[in-house]
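User: Hello! My lab partner asked me to get a predicted holo structure for this protein. The small molecule is magnesium ion, SMILES included with the sequence. Please write out the structure tokens.
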Amino acid sequence: MNWADTILQGILLGGLYALFAAGLSLVFGIMRLVNLAHGDLIVLAAYLILVLVDTLHLNPFVALVIAMPIMFGVGWLLQAYVLNRTLGPDILPPLLVTFGLSVVLQNGLLQAYSADSRRIPSGYLDTASISIGSLHAGVMPLLTFVSAVAVILILNRLLYATELGRAFRATSDDAVTAGLMGIQPHRTFAIATGIAMTIVAVAALYLGTRSNFDPTIGPARLIYAFEAVIMGGLGSLWGTLIGGIILGMAQTIGGAINPEWQILAGHIAFVLVLLFRPRGFFPRAVD
Amino acid sequence: MALLETHGLTAFYRDFQALFGVDVSLDAGETLAIVGANGAGKSTLMRSISGVLINGARQILFEGRPIGALAAPQVMALGIAMVPEGRKLFPSLSVEENLLIGRYGRTTKGPWSLETVYRLFPILKERRNNPGTALSGGQQQMVAIGRALMSNPRVLLCDELSLGLAPVVIRDIYAAFPAIRESGASIVVVEQDIGQAMKIADRLYCMMEGRVTLSGRPSELNRAAIHAAYFGADS
Ligand SMILES: Nc1ncnc2c1ncn2[C@@H]1O[C@H](COP(=O)(O)OP(=O)(O)OP(=O)(O)O)[C@@H](O)[C@H]1O
Ligand SMILES: [Mg+2]
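Assistant: Hello! Below are the structure tokens for the protein in complex with magnesium ion.
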């Protein structure tokens, strides 16, 4: 077994998990909302892209460009008309509502698209790869990783260098005082969830082109996303990327030793990180 | 017509009534002080005006327009900015970002900008990249005032600027007020220190247990009357 290659595959896989997790991390960081339907929303977006590719015969990347604003709208509406009503001092209502949404999405997708496994065709990119010395990397895994880094760069820029980002952070610190500054917290939250769903569309493209999916796989993606967010430290986007990479490496290394251990190795890494760094690698100073 | 006035203002925290028919009025260009003991309802009055608490629409009028039922973002868009009790800086924002966020909901042109706020409080320019909460109490209060000024408000509400600050620091903070008045803002300050209130205000209201118990110009009021209105007649 080629260790360097295994580690490289792990890092690249981590990019996918970071993409799953970035939206979750953003929404949690801003409104302390845990969206249990996050994984199912990724699957929803994957079907959206698939339908666009199938019916309009689009390149999947072009389909993504169309799916992103649609998913922004889905997120905006979801937050404005459903999730904002669940926010409050009690943390249970948003959990119950998003759990319900998860069930509805899974069953809705089953009804619409059956339980058959599907895949978004990505043509020659599917098998294309680049080699440097003894290292081989698929073009799609590389694109996934580059996309994850780009998404996190853009999100950080948005959060720390724009007026909207300041409003996000201020609202997260203290929604009442943010109101005194003219910020409408619920409007801000709707925009944040819209942005999270735009990222979900990116994650969905890579989920759907790299492996088969069906309506039931959402909750497992949610778990990976959670593990990445928590290992990285709640609220830190670069932490989320690191968390995703650790998860990806653990899975590929575990899988290289014994294919049956792949998934388990990821969960073990998660438990170990929690044992030694209960608040993750980059916890927020203020909470 | 007064710039801002309340009529029989009542306010509640769930079942608990905190204001029982408060009438105050602020003329353009005026500085009001509201004094009163702990729990008198001063902050509740500020929260009602600024829209943190929702009241009957006609209980608060701004230029004759009912604003009692408006939420905070809408009230601030009209030009009423608040320096909340306890300063309430945003810990994840730097000093400069705290100032910048102050004009989020209102981009009206006016005398106040980063530059003029830094001129008013030069120390903030030196500390502009520090987290707001890394500053001393007095400096934090300056940020909170600057943040409110950034929206170029017509009315500036200040809730207990002197809370927890040393007397010299309080003096520094109030030294900024002539410039703020000159910029055209009308001001309401809540103050526990009667001496300070008499010095700065054109008119003064004294509150006790959710009601106005005394009002007038500092020159017309004597300390004994204020004392009675502050603590209750028989104390
Ligand atoms: N969030 C709240 N929930 C319930 N009751 C409150 C709340 N805030 C204030 N009160 C009550 O309302 C009354 C008026 O309080 P308020 O804060 O307006 O007084 P204050 O004059 O500002 O006092 P201080 O000088 O201590 O700031 C008090 O009896 C207080 O206990
Ligand atoms: Mg108070």
